Amino acid sequence: MAGAAIRQGREWRLALPLTAFFLAFFVAPLCLLISISFQAESSMNGVLGLNQYAAFIGDRLNLEVLSDTLLLGVKATVLCLVFGYPLAWLITRVSARLQSLLIFLVILPIVTSVVVRTFAWIVILGRRGIVNDVIMALGLSSTPLRLLFSETGVIIVLTQVQMPLMVLPLVTVLQRIDPNLASASQALGAGAWRTFFKITLPLSMPGIIAGTILTYTACVTAFVTQSLIGGSRLLYMPMLIFQQAMDLQNWPFAAAVSVLFMISVLVIVGLLVALSRSRAAKLYG
Amino acid sequence: MKQHFDWNEFSFKAVFWALSLATVVVLAAPVVVILLLSFTGEEALHFPPASYSLRWYVALLDANELQASFIISIKVAAITVTASVALGVSAALAIVRSQSAWVRSLETLFMSPLILPALAFGFASLMMFSLLGFRPSILTLSIGHIVVCVPFVLRTTLASLAQLDPALLDCSVSLGASDLFTFRRVTLPLISRGVASGGFIAFMSSFDNVPVSLFLQDARTQVLPIYLWDIIQNQLDNRAASACGVIIIGTIVMMVLMERFAGFSRFMK
Amino acid sequence: MFDLTRRHLLAATAAAAGASLLPRGAFAADELVAATFGGTWANVQKQVLAPYFTKKTGASVVQSPMLATEQIAKLTAAKGGQPPFDVAMLDEGPNLAAIDAGLVEKYDPAKSPNFASLSPHFQTEYGPAITMQAIGIAYNPKTVKTPPTSWADLWKPEYKGRVGITSLASTLGLAFLLDINRLEGGTEASMEPAFKKLKTLLPNLAAVSANFGAHGALFQQGEVDIGVQNFNFAEELKAKGVPIEFVRVSTGTPAWKTTMHIVKGALKPELAYAYIDSQLSADVQSAMQKSPWNVIPTNSKVAYEGLVASKIAKSPADLDKMVFFDWKKVNQGRAEWTQQFNREIRV
What string of H, E and C letters represents the secondary structure of A202-262? Predict the structure, then answer.
């Protein structure tokens, strides 16, 4: 018993190495980022001010880039939800072997390099790619559709690339729902759709919100996909930060853009978390 | 009981099955397309390939820069996993066992790199290292990767520690074993699968990382995904397709092994 | 059993990793890091220049592709410390900026025997001109039936959604815009006429590439059927079997010099001199002039041959007739024009 008491007193020391590491290499850089964003001049001569923020907010183009990025995330996340939910549902309904295979297929994209996956889409969506070949063969259009270098293309690819992040939390939560509830609902006369909307969907909300948070943040910060598929004419926040930081070496401005971007993402995540907490409060009193 | 055709049930299942199958196809399509394309015999990349050959795989043999970037990615990933496991497992132990609230709240701190834009973090790290006078190197690259990869190890380790019966540890201690012995012989084997799974995800995540590497690499330490991106965008060298083919095959093999020996799909949720 | 073996493995990996963290200088054989442009430039330098250099000095070279503007950015960021590369390759415009910012050294002819063989106007003080670049229109002969003759052809309605240009980050895009400006009656002082004209091109634009290489890739994939392109770039693609033809425009071919420089604070200055000197040698330049590279030579001992002679210039006198810009003035407006360009081309 004495051994157990002493053990509990010293446990916290095990967290020290990672804490120190994070303070030095995670918290410190972020603090530096925030402080540099207050440098008024791009030469970083020490004069402080809100100039960089004013420069960002004052230019309509920048605000468009920010809203385009945040909206892009919404569109792609909605698609992930609409297509990912049925897949998660399917996974919970099939045999164990098929289930393993499906989960394998879902996890494979996560561990495959995003460059590899996006590359394939360049070929698939190009003017002479498969999609256009099929569309023209079916007579749906006489000229190839511009899918590559368009927002539509970016949304399609983002949906596929980030889909696993939506599916996995949904599978977790769907597996936990007591199947007796659905049976009871149907025994009481409710149809399949009604059961779904009134029982299954509300109970799976925590999973939906968890999936949405992960998917949305990933879509919004998906630099590789946005750039390779979007091209130079579609500018989103990650590329803006990169261009300002590396091409133009304007660190204070890039820092301000980064801070604004992080705040926007955190606000949205915060709203989603608050939503999940309020629902939990409603459901469980 | 009279069985009547339930339209409701049918339409529901039809819609859900149709959407899921479409999703499965879309999820798998890119990987299949690239694998097939990597065997093309042509100069340009058109699907389906007009002819098949191994020429682009053979071409990889003297792609020196590609090989060099591959080696750098492996080195960085190896360092990242090692450090992430060492740091992450000990932090996970502390979080699970500790009574104090602030230690448990550290979990949020350690998980936050998953939510924050990695690009902004990469940029911030570059500025910090640069202002401190450090040039980009494998070490700085690894440090950046560790920050964004350790959450994966932490998550799976916490999940397996949660499943650990504390009675086992109490037994060990009451039988006179020291803490280190208990850890080595009781805890570690029991959480090994979770740790291995997290380590695998951390390895792949580091190997594939672009947003952090973009800022923390330089000409001498270029990593594979960025090199690939460069050739895809700027040259359309078909060796990019065969390089991707190698990566895909390697990933699948590793995944199958991990599933058999560590059942890691359990820890992905 | 489980724990020990894994810990041993981890320890071994850590040791191996630690060994690889030691400074490269301790193990690497002599090596030079040089910047180059992407695409065909990286290819020709890798295949022709690098082997020649290695044979001559025994040292190897890491050639890092990046745009001239990117090189300036990286050198500026590293100013005062160790530069990320020892040899810079720049176009006119960026090279003036580099000289003004003190990023490159004066070129010492004594250390470079081939310097004397250059035609006089290529013997610039801070770094010799290694080639001239000329631009024109590239098109896909399979899908574009009438060969274009001037920039105005890009505006034809039949090319809607099929035209490709590059952004102003690359000299290719900038030279195109400057020439449009000149033809619309503007000067390097104001680019308004060019931007007005560019707006009308927007419906035709299929893609705006970040650099030459990406631009070439678009031709290769059939994403773009007609566009502005470099002479040697287009010819390399053609030699690879891509359906592409290059024509000069009737209003005069814009051209500019490309120079190589020793970076200030270079780690291996002697190797850097040997590298640039190799690039200036008659052997390397005549090899680069051959297909598929078609790089215009600057060494007076190398006569113009092949596609360079038939499509661009038969002699240095022909080069003088091309269209040149005042790059000093261009530098002053470049940043602002880049911002405006990025704004205008947005979808």
Answer: HHCHHHHHHHHHHHHHHHHCCHHHHHHHHCCCCCCHHHHHHHHHHHCCCHHHHHHHHHHHH
What's the gap in Å between the CA of B20 and the closest CA on chain A? 4
Is A30 close to B228, i.e. CB distance below 8 A?
no
Res. B150 pLDDT band, cuts 50 70 90: very high
Tell me how far apart the alpha carbons of residues B143 and A28 are, in angstroms, rounded to a whole number.
13
SS3 content of chain C, % helix, strand, coil (to 5): 50, 20, 35
Q: Which residues of C are less than 8 Å from A150 in CB distance?
A: 347
Closest CB to B236 among C21, C211, C220: C220
Taking the whole predicted model, whether its pTM rises above 0.90 is answered as no
Chain C neighbors of B140, CB-CB under 8 A: none
Shortest CA distance from A244: residue in chain C = C73
| Residues B95/B157, Cβ–Cβ less than 8 Å | no
Using pLDDT thresholds of 50, 70 and 90, give the confidence band for residue C11: very low
Sign, Cα dihedral of B234, B236, B240, B241: positive
The C-alpha atoms of residue B126 and residue B123 are separated, in whole angstroms, by 5
For C332, left (φ over 0), alpha (ψ -120 to 50), or beta?
alpha
**E-strand stretches of chain C:** 31-36, 60-65, 87-91, 129-139, 163-166, 205-209, 226-230, 245-247, 255-262
Q: B8 contacts in A (CB within 8 Å)?
A: 191-194
**Sign of the torsion formed by the C-alpha atoms of B188, B190, B194 and B199:** positive
Interchain CB distance below 8 Å, C73 and A247? yes
Q: What is the DSSP letter of C210?
A: S
pLDDT (tens digit per residue) in B30-87: 888 888 888 888 777 777 788 888 888 888 887 878 888 999 999 999 999 999 999 9
Comparing CA positions, the residue from C304, C294, C306 lying closest to residue C133 is C294
3-class SS string, chain B: CCCCCCHHHHHHHHHHHHHHHHHHHHHHHHHHHHHHHCCECCCCCCCCCCCECCHHHHHHCCCHHHHHHHHHHHHHHHHHHHHHHHHHHHHHHHHHHCCCHHHHHHHHHHHHHHCCCHHHHHHHHHHHHHHCCCCCCHHHHHHHHHHHHHHHHHHHHHHHHHCCCHHHHHHHHHCCCCHHHHHHHHHHHHHHHHHHHHHHHHHHHHHHCCHHHHHHCCHHHCCHHHHHHHHHHHCCCCHHHHHHHHHHHHHHHHHHHHHHHHCHHHHHC
Q: Radius of gyration over alpha carbons of chain C, in Å?
A: 22
- For residue C290, the SS3 value is coil
Residue C118 · residue C302 · CB < 8 Å: no
ipTM associated with this complex = 0.85
Radius of gyration of chain A (CA): 24
β-pair type (C60-65, C163-166): unpaired
3-state secondary structure of C7: helix
Integer Cα distance of A135 and C157 in angstroms: 24
**Mean pLDDT, range B164-183, rounded to an integer:** 81
Q: Are C21 and B139 in contact (CB under 8 A)?
A: yes
CB-CB under 8 Å, A114 with B225: yes
Q: B233: nearest CA in chain C?
A: C214
To the nearest 10°, the Cα dihedral for B57, B63, B68, B71? 10
Closest CA in chain C for residue B79: C17
Task: Give the Cβ contact number of residue C127 at 10 Å.
Answer: 23
Q: Which residues contact A230 (CB under 8 A, 6 or more apart)?
A: A149, A150, A151, A153, A154, A236
β-partners of residue C260 are C89
Contacts by residues B4-10 (CB-CB < 8 Å, ≥ 24 positions apart): B6/A191, B6/A192, B8/A191, B8/A192, B8/A193, B8/A194, B9/A191, B9/A192
